[in-house]
Write a structure and sequence with these properties.
With about 120 residues, the protein is α/β, with parallel strands linked by helices. It is built from five helices and five strands.
Amino acid sequence: MEAAMSAAHFKLNNLIAFTDLNKLQIDGTTQDVMNIEDITSKWLSFGWYVQRVDGHSITAIDKAIRNAKKECQRPSMIVLDTIKGKGAFFAEGKVNSHHMTFDYETAKEAMSQLGVTL
């Protein structure tokens, strides 16, 4: 918290940071384990320029970075709304994807979906 506020205080306008907001923790959802509530308002209260974008969209991320580079008075936080494990049929949106194991058949299927032949 102090570092975040210091960055704004000292007008570190060349600082661009990201928060991956996938809403999952190792023990459950952030809402159930430790609700971080409105992360955008928190960064704004620290004095940062804040944008919130689709974290799976390269176009949206690129645009946010370009906008952040235009900010002259304060550091920038880009909050990325993401889905943990997106695109991996066996992990997408699942809490246990932090530490999951999977069998050889699942690995083969995942590789096949990526177009990789074994």
